[in-house]
Amino acid sequence: MHVFVTGATGWIGSAVVDDLLAAGHEVTGLARSEAAALALAKKGARVRRGDLDDLAGLRDGALDAQGVVHLANKHDWANPAESNRAERAAVETIADALVGTDRPFVLAAGLSGLVRDRPAVETDVSPEVGPGAHRGGSENLALEYAEKGVRAVSVRFAPSVHGVGDHGFLAAITASAREHGVSAYLGDGTTAWAAVHRPAAAELVRLGLEGAPAGSRLHAVAEEAVTTRAIAEAVGRVLGLPVVSLAPEEAAGHFGFVGRFFGLDMAASSAITRELLGWTPTGPTLVEDIEGGAYA
User: Fold this and answer.
1) I need a labelling partner for 30 at 20 to 30 A (CA). Which of 60, 132, 250, 253 fits?
2) Within this chain, do residues 49 and 131 fall inside the same structural domain, yes or no?
3) How do residues 152-168 score in pLDDT, each as one tens digit?
4) Which residues form the NAD-dependent epimerase/dehydratase domain (predicted)?
5) What distance in Å separates the CA atoms of residue 151 and residue 69, rounded to the nearest whole number?
6) pLDDT tens string 73-103
7) Domain shared by 38 and 128, yes or no
8) What CATH number has the domain bearing residue 252?
């Protein structure tokens, strides 16, 4: 299959490109910079120069391919409204291009805010609806196209897609521990995050592209719930720092932008996903990766 991938040189996207190529697929990756273009070409992927605001380029990339994996996001924490606008416009453009083709369209989504007081499951419908919602309500928007001849599939990624080189939430949490001289969690530390090793997440994206039914919601989750206290303790052990509890109002001062997420319960099951696609995630656990030096 010839696959058009946005976010092709990002943390998850680069692993997805590797997995797709290893499985025999052809890949065209969206590249914003010359460095990104060179990285893709070195892997043997084709290159389409552009970004999320190049809607004509996104449309043409989708039309030229036999399937689309959309992983790019602006992640502009200073201007979330712009990130949401751009995401919705990109998803709508790609999906419109695929109407009536029955081609797969796999897009990235998150697990935050789905439910409270229990792990999220794949049948939980995202409450994010409309242009002003988080990610522009892109998951619900994309899945609407399942009735328009698009094999739309959402992959909800665990808040920690971990591994050596990760520059996301866990890297920021570790950096905050170094800066303040303590490894912290909030409250009693019982809030928990789902987690998955990066290669396992990439494999799931490919499996979803190859065979998930239209309208599927997949959970890229290997560990259902790793408590924030367990995360803080692992960071503390690696850095040789004391582990402390902070009040919720201290989160922003200690963690920065990650503080708004570290106190959220983002546990999730992937039982339906595993049964549907025969996916068995492998690799180290989150704590094993931390203790193995992935963030040191």
Assistant:
1) 132
2) yes
3) 999 999 999 999 999 98
4) 3-197
5) 12
6) 887 767 878 888 899 999 999 999 999 999 9
7) yes
8) 3.90.25
**pTM beyond 0.85:** yes
Side chain identity at residue 115, one-letter code? V
Give the whole-angstrom CA distance, residue 247 versus residue 225: 21
Does 108 share its domain with 10? Answer: yes
